[in-house]
Amino acid sequence: MSLPVIDLFAGAGGLSIEATDAGCEVKASVELDQKACQTLRANSHFHGNVAENDVSAMTGDDLRSLAGLASSDRICCTNRLRDSCHESNMIFGMHEQLVPYEV
Fold it and tell me: Which of 15, 62, 81, 93 could form a disulfide with 77, with the two C-beta atoms 3.0–4.6 Å apart?
């Protein structure tokens, strides 16, 4: 089973492409810029479901739903997102380090 990934602040999608190349399965990408989202959707095999949305307006349940994950699945967040990730079942870690993930 590959590691499911949700790409936040996806931009043009470079992280998703590298995650896919590393054997992960990108389930969803979130980006606010309309043109970037058009690029992501045109290459959906790398980016999963694409939401043109402000990440700070989304909850963990919103992200899980977009990615097709169960409400009990844990989501990893970087420290930069700690303030907007309030659900108790999120895992936090340094964005420079690999964060444990449980399904």
Answer: 81
